[in-house]
Amino acid sequence: MIKAVLFDMDGVLIDAREWHYEALNRALEPFGLLIDRDAHLASFDGLPTRTKLDILSKSRGVPIKLHDLISKLKQKYTMELITARCRPVFHHQYMLASLKQQGFKIAVCSNSIRASIVSMMDLAGLSQYLDCTFSNEDVERPKPDPAIYLAAMQRLGVAPHECVIVEDNDHGLQAARASGGHVLQVVSPDDVNFNKISRFICEVSEKN
After folding, report:
1. pTM of the prediction?
2. Distance in angstroms (rounded) separating the CA atoms of residues 110 and 152
3. How far apart (Å, rounded) are the C-alpha atoms in residues 99 and 103?
4. Mind listing the pLDDT tens digit for each residue in 139-155?
5. Where along the chain do its domains lie?
6. What is the DSSP letter of 133?
7. For the domain bounded by 17-85, which CATH number is listed?
8. Is 3.40.50.1000 the CATH classification of the domain at 4-15+87-207?
9. Which H/E stretch holds residue 4?
């Protein structure tokens, strides 16, 4: 029996991929660096900023001593974009409210930092439906490692086979599958709704 639904955030509950791309490029621009949009989606989507910077140090020679400054700038610009653009989406509010009413436990597990998660969930009107949230600051190894999902399952008191995990990008999907949960892959936040989640839960329950 499914007891919990665990959601990634960026690209699943919040359409924030472009925000992260814009903020990172704005932070890198003073140092003469820019990331192509396709390259960002192919290689960086869903990764924490510090992991992205580690990759850029190896591939494009970004000095490690600049990581802290670039990371702080990126977060500053991300928060500006969140404040300006993040708004409630009815079908997401309805979905979480309905799942909650049916007795499912709900968690958000994101490679973003906690401040970003809190801000987005508050501005999107989703915080009230969540039993817990996990950020990249809450685990030693971010996605694609499954640690963040395993930590959420432990907090919720559920086993992997009792969870549905909703993910969109390769790094998140890898983490979700490695955790042992039932993985529902989505394309974008527009693809995430109550009917889709309910159908998947029914399919999983029937198979087991």
Report:
1. 0.90
2. 11
3. 7
4. 999 999 999 999 999 99
5. 4-15+87-207, 17-85
6. E
7. 1.10.150
8. yes
9. strand 4-7
